[in-house]
């Protein structure tokens, strides 16, 4: 059972959507000196600029409330223009949806990688016949390559042979040619109605060759898992740059991602050991 990703801890940089009417979240007051001088006393005046940040739903409203002046009466003064702006901020639900989408994609891709490894292994014959041994065979049928199992029925009358009965007898020659061109190492016997394949006894040398092929396919599967992990990390880093996840959030999901990656690596290793045992069994 794959380890589920941990939920995202609320991010400080994200404002929780409010259902109530907007209200002031905070205000900033700054004093600035050296503004317009008082004509009467020739002394410098001070001005205080008040900013307020209001939030309603997932929108942030930043307002510059202009200037307030203090000190002695002022004859001249210059007011700052009143400014307002609206910034769209992501909601917690939106962030969770993005994170969940990444997690789902990771698991789907890793599951498909496992299935690909299994499929590749099943096409490598051991001591017993099995229809899946012909899964990788493609036949040129009416000008297009199609899988053998889509145009013929495959059965195993005994432990050392396979029977191929095409739905269209005109495809027998094409099927025979595809089998000869493959790396199965079997000679097809075409009697005009069906094709019989007899599995030759595996030699010690051939078993070792097949074992190397299996090891290579295993490593390719592991590389695919690592690439999926890399893509997910890039996606999380992108959310961090967009201020949707904090640095701590990214560390948490990265840790969970590594645990999931380790689980799938172990699955591939288990499948490999089982196949290797079959190949080397005399």
From TrEMBL:
Residue ranges occupied by any Ribosome recycling factor domain in the UniProt entry: 118-280
Major subcellular site: plastid
GO CC entries: chloroplast
Top-level division of the source organism's lineage: Eukaryota
Matches recorded under Pfam families: RRF
GO BP of this protein: plastid translation
Cell location: Plastid, Chloroplast
PANTHER family noted in UniProt: MITOCHONDRIAL RIBOSOME RECYCLING FACTOR PSEUDO 1, RIBOSOME RECYCLING FACTOR
Family membership: Belongs to the RRF family.
Name the record gives this protein: Ribosome-recycling factor, chloroplastic
Organism: Quillaja saponaria
């Amino acid at each position: 059972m794959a380890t589920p990703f941990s939920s995202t801890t609320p991010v400080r940089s994200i404002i929780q959507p409010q259902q109530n009417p907007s209200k002031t979240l905070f205000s900033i007051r700054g004093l600035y000196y050296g503004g317009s001088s008082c004509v009467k006393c020739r002394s410098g005046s001070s001005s205080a600029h008040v900013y307020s940040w209001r939030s309603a739903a997932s929108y942030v409203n930043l307002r510059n409330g202009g200037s307030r002046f203090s000190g002695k009466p002022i004859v001249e003064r210059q007011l700052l223009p009143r400014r307002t702006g609206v910034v769209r901020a992501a909601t917690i639900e939106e962030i969770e949806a993005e994170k969940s989408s990444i997690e789902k994609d990771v698991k789907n891709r890793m599951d498909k990688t496992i299935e690909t490894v299994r499929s590749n292994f099943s096409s490598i014959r051991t001591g017993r016949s099995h229809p899946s041994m012909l899964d990788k065979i493609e036949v040129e049928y009416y000008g297009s390559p199609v899988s053998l199992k889509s145009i013929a029925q495959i059965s195993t009358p005994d432990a050392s042979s396979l029977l191929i009965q095409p739905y269209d007898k005109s495809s027998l020659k094409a099927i025979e040619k595809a089998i000869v061109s493959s790396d199965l190492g079997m000679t097809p016997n075409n009697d005009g109605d069906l094709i019989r394949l007899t599995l030759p006894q595996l030699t010690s040398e051939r078993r070792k060759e097949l074992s190397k092929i299996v090891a290579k396919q295993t490593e390719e599967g592991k590389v695919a898992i690592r690439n999926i992990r890399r893509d997910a990390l890039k996606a999380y880093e992108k959310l961090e740059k967009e201020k949707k996840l904090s640095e701590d959030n990214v560390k948490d999901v990265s840790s969970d991602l590594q645990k999931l990656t380790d689980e799938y690596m172990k699955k591939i290793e288990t499948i490999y050991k089982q196949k290797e045992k079959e190949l080397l069994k005399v």
